[in-house]
Specification:
Blueprint: E1 9-18, E2 21-30, E3 35-39, H1 46-54, E4 61-69, E5 72-73, E6 84-88, H2 99-106, H3 114-124, H4 140-153, E7 158-162, H5 170-187, E8 191-194, H6 198-204, E9 208-210
Parallel strand pairs: 3-8, 3-9, 6-7, 7-8
Antiparallel strand pairs: 1-2, 1-4, 4-5
Bound molecules: adenosine-5'-triphosphate (ATP).
């Protein structure tokens, strides 16, 4: 989206323990533009893995291993300095900001010509003219598209997705799957997707790992 070259996401010998017992063990690399799907039964540690990568691991857990984004070891960085963007099932738009305000929020603070970036992003997802709307007045699919654009405008180096389509109805899910994964591929972003839905996995065209096996 902004001409940046994106790194790969390396997960080096990661082990996450709960009460001293290994819950998640993972070693591998997610290439730029690749989405790695993480599946597994309830309680197998999928959300915990994403929380660890994002920098929000709850204190009940302990972890070892390294998280490396390109040439940056981000393992010990706080969440806000990791360069990792999140897309969850709830679009979590700020209710006190307009649609355009939500998108501007994603942009790096000193970026010039923010208005043009926001206008292009809205046009990109068929929402031209929606900038001044209150997010509460948008449909579920429109909110999801704004959340995707806010994520991409924030120029992350990697993306984590946790059941991102599960709140949408079937038809919208197909549309959002296509939109999200085509944008992640085009932006060259490595990503991890947690889902129970095989159709999500098929849309990524990528590898799948199973936790708790
Ligand atoms: N904050 C926490 N403190 C202690 N234990 C937790 C905490 N959060 C989750 N757990 C436990 O860690 C294990 C993994 O939970 P996690 O939410 O990662 O599973 P999951 O694979 O994402 O499950 P689901 O598919 O149901 O969302 C579970 O046994 C859960 O009870």
């Amino acid at each position: 989206m902004n001409g940046q070259v994106h790194p790969s996401l390396e997960l080096r010998d990661i082990v996450i323990r709960l009460d001293g017992k290994p819950l998640v063990a993972l070693d591998g690399t997610v290439a730029p533009g690749e989405t790695l799907t993480v599946m597994g039964p309830s309680g197998s540690g999928k959300s915990t893995l994403l929380a660890y990568l994002a920098g929000f691991l709850p204190p009940a857990f302990d972890a070892c291993g390294r998280i490396v984004l390109g040439d940056r070891d981000i393992t010990d960085l706080p969440a806000e300095r990791r360069g990792i963007g999140l897309l969850f099932q709830d679009p979590l738009l700020f209710p006190h900001l307009s649609v355009a305000g939500n998108l501007r929020f994603g942009l790096p603070r000193h970026m010039p010509d923010k208005t043009t970036h926001v206008r292009r992003a809205l046009a990109d997802v068929g929402l031209s003219g929606y900038g001044e709307r209150d997010p509460a007045t948008l449909s579920g699919g429109q909110k999801a598209r704004v959340a995707l654009m806010r994520l991409l405008l924030s120029a992350p180096s990697a993306v984590l997705l946790d059941e991102p389509f599960s709140m949408l109805d079937t038809e919208l899910r197909d549309e959002m799957r296509h939109l999200v994964f085509s944008h992640l591929r085009a932006a060259g972003l490595p990503s991890l997707l947690v889902t129970h839905d095989q159709k999500d996995t098929a849309a990524t065209r990528g590898r799948v790992i199973e936790l708790g096996g």
